[in-house]
Amino acid sequence: xxxxxxxxxxxxxxxxxxxxxxxxxxxxxxxxxxxxxxxxxxxxxxxxxxxxxxxxxxxxxxxxxxxxxxxxxxxxxxxxxxxxxxxxxxxxxxxxxxxxxxxxxxxxxxxxxxxxxxxxxxxxxxxxxxxxxxxxxxxxxxxxxxxxxxxxxxxxxxxxxxxxxxxxxxxxxxxxxxxxxxxxxxxxxxxxxxxxxxxxxxxxxxxxxxxxxxxxxxxxxxxxxxxxxxxxxxxxxxxxxxxxxxxxxxxxxxxxxxxxxxxxxxxxxxxxxxxxxxxxxxxxxxxxxxxxxxxxxxxxxxxxxxxxxxxxxxxxxxxxxxxxxxxxxxxxxxxxxxxxxxxxxxxxxxxxxxxxxxxxxxxxxxxxxxxx
Length: 372
Hints:
With 372 residues, this protein is an alpha/beta fold. It has helices at 16-28, 39-49, 65-74, 92-100, 113-173, 181-213, 225-235, 237-242, 261-277, 309-312, 336-345, and strands at residues 8-12, 32-36, 53-57, 83-87, 105-108, 220-224, 246-250, 256-260, 284-291, 295-302, 350-356, 360-368. The strands form three sheets. It has a five-stranded parallel beta sheet, with helices on both faces.
């Protein structure tokens, strides 16, 4: 808080004249002031006022300033508030006692106006600097966590996927291996599938990284979701046909949502792809749009293997990285649902999941239908 003029100070003194004098000086210099005439009142007021700094008299009846300060420091909600003692006592033992109880500074009575203002400003600046350091420390921790997760995906999932592509390529270029036309075709199909898996993995990793670094600039627009769903379905038609999936779309033309269209396509692609991945051969997937007053729910329903209850708790948790194999051994990074959750948040949307083991899952995306 480099601009301290809007800071709120709590003044605690049992002497009304002292409160008036101190309050007047601080008001004149742009501070917001709250008053308390004794320790218990101060302890009750501090949680309501939420002061940036407390000026605390030492010698008060019933509860002295040292005890008030100790109690403030015992509470997590108030421990961070700097306390400056205002005291007529100047002997070393009393000053040390004040620091030991949690005070950060002291001002002697009668106070010097310039010294008072400088000491207050110093403590407020120090508090602001500490807050900045704490914020930067947290950002560094988050950046390191992001780096570790990216490296984890690269080291395990992406490396494995690229390794499979490399292995296919080595087999196809090995002159010692004689392949028939049919075998070559099978290799090409397998190579394409692995390349698609690798691309999807990398695409989700990049989207997830952008979300975590908060470098996404959404462009919300109103669009008909039927066209988007149809386009995603065409993109995934190879996988749908390979598993003989029956995909039923109950999305009437003319149902609109407001979102970033590219983000919406990424979300729908991930959800439908997951539904395919966890559906058996000949399984059924339904996509249903349910218009409401100001919102639209889009449900992606499968009747596949379902999700374990313990995994449901961390589906959208950015601190958890787990992936499971599909019904035919399909591999993923575990990032897709986190990407869906994060991208939807940029469009005032949300996603929830319901699932029952061995019966299937329902993922519901909710988005506004009108531009605000």
